[in-house]
Amino acid sequence: MGAGNQFPGASFHGTVHFGQTLSPNHQERRQGTRQEDVSPEAWTSKPQPATTSDYGRPSTPSRGPISQGQPSRPASRDDFEIAIICALPLEVDAVEALFDRHWDDDDDSPPYDKAAGDPNAYSTGVIGRHNVVLAYMPNMGKVAAGSVASYCRMSFRGIRLALVVGICGAVPFRPDDGSEIVLGDVIVSSGVVQFDFGRQLPERFVRKDTLLDVLGRQNTEIRALLAKLGTRRSRKTMQDKMAAHLRHLQAEADLVARYPGAAQDKLFEAAYRHLLDDASCDACGCDGQLVRRSRLEQSSDDTSCPQPVVHFGLMGSSDKVMKSGVERDAIAQQEGVIAFEMEGAGVWDVFPCVVIKGACDYADSHKNKKWQRYAAATAAACMKAFLSHWIPLQPNRAY
Ligand SMILES: [Zn+2]
């Protein structure tokens, strides 16, 4: 990451690369996605009859407070511009809970279905001012993600932005500036590094160039938005929106999206290994030295939920689960990544893509599932806040 590319004076930690040209595929897709058949009436800034203006009020069939200018039902699958891809059911649960409308529940209109031969399962609906399609993955990993994304592109030919939303393992201290990432914080990818892509030599592993080089960087539109969101004011606005969406998710008891408590956010020293597989740290008696986290110490009590922070930066993506504090720190130092996950690399090759993932563990041997639902909720909340800054391409908007 070249220091010259950093945003000066801003809290944006990702790298902004200028002068990048779109890959032929991306250019083709973008040029082919303008919708010419949407009438001015199709998009309205008037409140929908059943739309609420506050999370606390009844919300049928629409949810959410920030739905200024909800789009009308698309005429066809080609009118969807946003795809969301999730690997785990608990990630889907959190994302779906933030839909403002569900087109699949609309019995008066024909279903969107999908292209012949597409095995994916989808939900369609509205998030904020966008029509979105949510694609479910049958299993985790890059191959499954790539396959789901490819079929999704076949059925929904107007997709301009794919968001991979869910949970990840975080690097506890950013390698670039040392700032803390705590559980529940959200990482928004400024790039994806496929760190296990290379050759294993007898003595060492030689990684090929990063995905940034192999597959191309995010397109200009995405990079411009990330640069904007990295500025102090925009990031604060985004985090405030995220906090509002998170409160909505936490009000839904069956999502179990409550903050597990600062005392449960344990970071062991990188070299301290978990004692027993298939048992929790409590059950097997992990008692290694804990690393001090100043943000957690600032919490007024154990149950008060520190406001999740959004971190922009490189996401490490691989087919293996990262379960080693030592390896985590080595790769973070070497590659500049701030989190680890398994799907981004698969989608990156297919769609213009941003990975938005909540930190549910520290990618070490102590990883457990305690934080998954909360982290899935913060990621979904961040996704909705992010989308509020994304401008739909379709013309003749009433806003
Ligand atoms: Zn442990």
Automatic annotation (TrEMBL):
Compositionally biased region (Basic and acidic residues): 26-37
Nucleoside phosphorylase domain residues: 81-387
GO BP: nucleoside metabolic process
GO molecular function terms listed in the Swiss-Prot or TrEMBL record: catalytic activity
Alphabetized InterPro entries for the sequence: NLR-like, Nucleoside_phosphorylase_d, Nucleoside_phosphorylase_sf
Ranges for region Disordered: 1-75
Segments of skewed composition (Polar residues): 45-73
PANTHER family: AAA+ ATPASE DOMAIN-CONTAINING PROTEIN-RELATED (PTHR46082:SF6), ATP/GTP-BINDING PROTEIN-RELATED (PTHR46082)
Name the UniProt record assigns to this protein: Nucleoside phosphorylase domain-containing protein
